[in-house]
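Run folding on both entries below.
>entry_1
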Amino acid sequence: MFWKYTLFESKLALKNRKNWVIALFFLTIFTLLFMYTSREDDPESLYDEKVEEAKEMRATYHYMDELRFDDEDVAEVYDLITEEASLINFQKFYLGQGDDPEGYIENGLELNKLRLQVHELGNAGMPGHLIVPVDEILREDALLKYIQENDLPLESESFLTGYYFEKAFKAISGMLFFLVVLIAGSEMLTFEQRHESIFNGFPIPFMQKVASKVLIQFIYISILLFAGFYIGITYLKDKLELFDTDFPILIYSNGYYEAVSISQYAMYMLFAFLLIIIITLLGAVLCNMIFKNAFATILAGLGVFIIPYLMMLAGWKVPILSSIIYLDFFNVLAGEASMNLQYTSIDYIHGYIWLTGVIILLIGVIYAFHKGSYYKRREKGTKHAA
């Protein structure tokens, strides 16, 4: 009976016009985002970045030139800054006339060591706006080490590919993805309640009914998500001639940054999306049970998503409510969630564990709520019969 019911539900889902709008969204979103990104200015080249860094170095040691005679710590920092300036100038040479990628990487790793030493000295004498944050130093260090270990070219099309991927996932992750999936599942139970006579021929347990509805929507949305992603990367490959997945993208893990290939990064994001789809659909089922209205389900879902963010902006960092940030998985991988909440444990591994835990919790709550409603109805029926 379960599979007969699922087949019947599938046919209804395919005839639902709302689902065709959802399909259009997922099939086109990645391509549209890649097209939009292609019309923006390309990211600054490594050489241009080093030119800017060299200017900042000159401004820094000119500012510190007089201060170093009055303070030993400032004098020590000044010496390190001078070494940094030399390394940056060598990096410019290696990217230009020198054409020595290995030399660029070695100097870059040495430069990062010096910058961390400057932080250990408290950045004595340095103007605040010219201090390179530790987070930025660690990110660049992880990137250079990955390039060195995998013998990748510095000026690679894959660098631009990674830029496109990050921009696209940043745009779709979080509120947008959650809202679209919530709309897709907003009337899983209310539709049946409005057309009860159609479904009377399928006497199956409630939890099996929920499993069937969630399974259908999950498969439908997942297929559309992967199809849209495939169409998007086909556009990158054919129209923009960009599809080299070897170059790294940085992700945050347990207080540190690690570099992973573009394909691995996409796999992490898509797997998180699959878990978020299940959570959102189960949440929609629970809201349907409580409010018995599709519009109320959408408003309640948005409230659950938005209110914790507003509380965090107001400075109220409640751990349980703050965990909602895992639904915006781009920020988890980028390390922004960890920095905003100042919890080093907020990374992709803990994100997967949290998302899986919420799925189990929602299933338990739906079951408990159904059982509670069932006993209440039975008690009312007993009273009326008496």
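>entry_2
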Amino acid sequence: METLSDMDTTTDASLIPQCDLFNDTTKCDVVIITKRVFASISVLGSVLMIINMLVYKKYKNFIQRIILYMTVAAFISAIAYVMGDLQNPGPVCTFQGFVTNFSDWCVLMWMFMITLTLYLTVVKETQLDRIEWVFHIICWGVPFIISCIIFADGNRYGPAGAWCWIEMGATYWRFGTWYIPLVIFIIIMIILYLHMIFVVKRRTRNSESVYGDDSQRRVLDELKPLRAYPFIYLLLNIFPLINRIQNAASKDPLHPEFALTLLHVISISLLGAVNALIFGMNRQTLREFQWSNFRLQVKAMCSRSDSIVGEYEVQNNDGANEND
């Protein structure tokens, strides 16, 4: 006769999802641990970038603000991959899938805006800081709408390997709402960037620009950190795209290739870390991250805050005395 404790043990075990993706639970553990390790590195890199921008007040510059917004999106995406795990279909898995899809789309949209800003500033010599609010509507609103559209066919969020995203059987949703738009956006970014290179070289030869030579050079120097982003983003999405194509073409999509899946999770988890690496690969940022410089900057910020508070209190007391 089965005891109550035996029934509880059996029930609890049945609630734990079993990974049979590779017919080897060890490989599942490797994929999940690898994803969490690299995503954690991206979380750390994104946090360091955000702290640097806030402490040194780089957010006052429009272009730096765009990088900041993209970094915030990359931070959310990295958090989603850290918490992503093997789950049974249900509310938790749906939430993970929704956040993952939303944050990945936010990163893509801000990445596109970086390229568009770079292109319009250099080629069209147009200032975009006055329409920054439009960027926010597009880069946060469009991902939210697309992530909600996936509910139109019922809940298509579910187990998608060793984490939750658009479920295995919904290939048309995967490619229609993510991979096809992803390829289109990347192609557009590359075309814009190649045209920008052509225009800059032509202007350099002809020395023609409505900007003065010094202004043009200053703009180009300011935009240098941005020019590698589209190509790096392309490289980081090659293996996820190849893996999902293999999943769709496979006769047994529920059992994907281990090597491709591993490269997939490494690529999608590395964006925040690579972003921080690119951002930090200049002498100024490296000097800013030196503890002595960072401590002086924080101390200066605290001193300014104290002086503002003190000035407010003095004015407030003076006002009170006048009223008396």
